[in-house]
Amino acid sequence: MNADGWETQVQTQAQIGTTSNELNADAVTALLQPRSVTIIGASERSRWSRTAFDNMTGCGFQGELHLVNRSGGMVHDRPAATSCEALGESCDLGIIMVPAAGTDDALRDLAAAGGRSAIMLMSGFAETGAEGAARQAELATLDRKSVV
User: What is the CATH number of the domain that holds 43?
Assistant: First the structure.
């Protein structure tokens, strides 16, 4: 990843839960000690989804674990909602693993549902060149505006 992409990622992570450069203690707690986690983009076909799910269920996470898949149905032997808003409750942490084209919608959905922090596992941004770097900068702006 190029230096510009790394710098943007670090800057975005430092601003979680704020609309300024100040770190919000509640948002950091939601990120590091979540009471509820939603895996957004949960899928039987994704090893990342399976690994995140197995780590949450197998390593003693005591909070609520929700799955979101646009198609709904069953994922990892659990029902999956079609969106974060469809869950009907907020979550402390959203783990977003959707294609680059769907990141804006996923982040907006998480924010609209009251999500407080996010970890984004994806590619197709600054590491792909100037166009990807521009998309990453747009995403960082959306992140700040949505207060996730």
Answer: 3.40.50.720
